[in-house]
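User: For my dataset I need records formatted as: sequence, then structure tokens, nothing else. Please produce one.
Assistant:
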Amino acid sequence: MKVTKAVITAAGLGTRVLPISKSMPKEMLPIVDKPAIQYIVDEVIRSGIKDILIITSRGKTTIEDHFDRSPDLEVNLLQSGNKEKYESIVKVASMANIHYLRQKEMLGLGHAVLQAKTFAAGQPIAVLYGDDVVVGDNPATGQLCAAYEKYGKGIAGIKPVPTEMLTKVSSVKVEPIAASHYSVTDMIEKPAAGQEFSNYSILGRCVLPPSIFEILEKTPKGAGGEIQLTDAMRILATTEGMVGVEYEGVRYDMGNKLGYMKANVEMALQHPEIGVEFKKYIENLMGSL
């Protein structure tokens, strides 16, 4: 079955990037001149998906505003002859069919995904974590969707992480089945030392079958007193089987201050307007350190 719907989870409080996230949703943190969530939406669209649900929470209306029309700004740009910028902001407002739904209680990622049951309407969904920006020529979501269509099973986007980081993320039990594709038979969220299955972790992307919602409805609270999506996917993996895809692309953790700074520096170096001058600045800066 072709994947035609995507869910972006953007309800988290962003406590790891305080104090800025007190007044600005972490998903709206800029990477040079675009908010992080626009990179995520761009990835979904490049993957051939135009029907998107963004799960938000209180205080995140700026996300909706960003993907809406702005008549006063548009008129100002046209009157000042800045047609290129006018066209760029109008394009943002018409790039996809974007819906919004609030997660009224912060009960975890699994609970956030469960809110998308009606939106999914019995179809598989691509799930993208609002913390994770993945940059690459081949969109990560598209790689996972292709695997779903090939195997007909839930797909987890995985990457290897250092052992010392596993206690902060997840660890999955994998067996290789093809280039960059693995059979996933078990997983654990935030494992204690010695509980790890491997250094592979689910990072920011997955494609889930409709059965995930029934599983989530029965999933008890797990790590951190929250309904963990990993716990539900573990049941999926042990009953229906799942496939892990080690996706191409560079991942930036936007919920982490260092990840945020890496994203800005590396994307600034590639930026068509400032890339050349920024590279000179970095070279001069390195010479003074």
